[in-house]
Amino acid sequence: MNRNARGADPLWLFGDQLGPHFHDTAGNSGREVLLIRSAAAFARRPFHRQKIHLVEAGIRRLAADLGDRARIVDAPTYAEGLRRFGRPVVVHEPGSHAAEALVRRLQEQGLVTEVLPTPGFVRSKEDFATWAKDRQRFVMEDFYRDQRRRFGVLLEPDGGPAGGKWNYDHDNRRPPPGRSTLPVPAPWFPAEDEVDEQVRADLDKAERDGEIHPVGVDGPRRFAVSQAEAEEALDRFLDHRLATFGPHQDAMLSADWAMSHALLSVPLNLGLLDPLDVVRRAEERYLSGTAPLASVEGFVRQILGWREWIWHLYWHLGPDYLKRNELDARRKLPRWWKELDADAVEAACLRTALAGVRDRGYAHHIERLMVLGNHALQRGYDPAELTGWFATAFVDGFPWVMPANVVGMSQYADGGVVGTKPYAAGGAYISRMSDHCGGCTYDPKKRVGADACPFTAGYWAFLDRNEERLRGNPRMRQPLNGLRRLADLPDVVARESRRQRF
Questions:
Q1: DSSP-assigned letters across all residues of 414-468
Q2: Is 61 helix (H, G, I), strand (E, B) or coil?
Q3: Which DSSP category does 332 fall into?
Q4: How far apart are the two ends of the chain, measured CA to CA in Å?
Q5: Do the Cβ atoms of 117 and 124 come closer than 8 Å?
Q6: What is the pLDDT along the chain (502 residues), one digit of tens a residue?
Q7: Is 268:307 a contact under the CB 8 Å cutoff?
Q8: CB crowding 63-96: b at 16 or more within 10 Å, else e
């Protein structure tokens, strides 16, 4: 053990705090590390089988890497695990309101002596509170530009944005390139080992014994769970795929689920990668001329902008934010959705996205927002239930990740606190940005009839249902004006209210 750490309270790490910036920075280097595997953590809700596998494998890999410095304690709950450990600990800020409340209770009981700031995000909660003070709406672009200035990322010598623009999103919205896959190098995928084999056997037993009730298919593992693997995945993306990341990042291809996406959300959200280090290394690819600015800026915006913004909104808006339901969406998620039964779905885009969740616990951001989220918005699914589904069915889902993404951005359930308008779109958008519609049962140009696209018809039915609620939004004026010009609107609304198949 490091001499400076002798006598220091052990460091308790949650399963999403696995990287060296959590346990090997000044003040923590050499500390004894406690890892608690709580039986209750995955027992209460139907998590994706691969999500459970990733967290379990990550904990075991870290314990193996740290050797005698780490101890794993198995217990029914985190609190009981600490009692079994028998010594007070320090802990980093956790990633959920429930875990924060638990840590406060444990602190009152003397089981936790200190709560350290999280190194998993580059900006403190106090700094964000200062930025957000007196703001009624939270525009990510404003926050993102402030982040760039604060951390000196992609700036010209005069302090302006690299290339003269803050945002190259316009250059990163190209439709599919007219082929079934992108001509890019494949992403990095891990080689499973004996740790995965043991995790799989343990999860099989837990499922047989009724201790967990997972959804989705099991493996193979596709994402990093150790520091070494995370570094390999990051290097592969930066060296071989970042240059092509930007142009088609909003496109969808049936036969190419990874495309040029980074696939780094899992190691980032498991705490294996330091986000500012990731951003600096991406910036270096632009400065060295190995990746174009539009691609690098788009990637930096996802990490330094979007990811940080979502984290801070989770804490700033508070636990009651999940109760927001401005569009009064009360419909329960259908069984085929909760069970990831993609084979029950006829709409090609929706079937492909749901199959990706079933098979990998993953779908990229446009599939989440403009297919899964768009469908849920049009059908009026309950936003709180939907948020819970996204948090448990996705391998990169954690409690802090989904509320602002789903309640705010995807479902407009906060009435415009996060997003400026509902992200509702008809089949024309999906037809333009994907190759799904060519062989689909439904015609994206049709809103009535047996082959009417459920997204096209659903879009107009959504506007009709929420016209009064959306009338005050200036960005909705044009589509709402178009709504009243539809001579077949009563037929569209009646058919969509009876629709049983999607």
A1: TSSSS-SS-----HHHHHHHBS-GGG-SSBTT-SSSTTB-HHHHHHHHHHHHTHH
A2: helix
A3: P
A4: 59
A5: yes
A6: 333 454 589 999 999 999 999 999 877 888 999 999 999 999 989 999 999 999 999 999 999 999 999 999 999 999 999 999 999 999 999 999 999 999 999 999 999 999 999 999 999 999 999 998 887 777 889 999 999 999 999 999 999 999 999 999 888 889 998 889 999 999 999 999 999 999 999 999 999 999 999 999 998 999 999 999 999 999 999 999 999 999 999 999 999 999 999 999 999 999 999 999 999 999 999 999 999 999 999 999 999 999 999 999 999 999 999 999 999 999 999 999 999 999 999 999 999 999 999 999 999 999 999 999 999 999 999 999 999 999 999 999 999 999 999 999 999 999 998 888 999 999 999 999 999 999 899 999 999 999 999 999 999 999 999 999 999 999 999 999 999 899 999 999 999 999 988 9
A7: yes
A8: beebeebbeebebeebbbbbeebeebbbbbbbbb
pTM: 0.94
* Residue 21 host element (H or E): helix 20-23
Query: SS3 of 301, please?
Result: helix
The span from the CA of 405 to the CA of 138, in Å, is 13
The DSSP secondary-structure symbol of 339 reads T
Tokens for 306, please give them: 């979007």
Phi, psi of 161 (to 5 degrees): -70, 145
Q: What gap in Å lies between CA 482 and CA 484, rounded to an integer?
A: 5
For the sheet with 112-116, list strands across it. Answer: 70-75, 33-38, 11-13, 89-92, 112-116
**3-state SS, residue 395:** coil
| Distance (Å) of CA 379 to CA 213, 371, 493 | 27, 12, 12
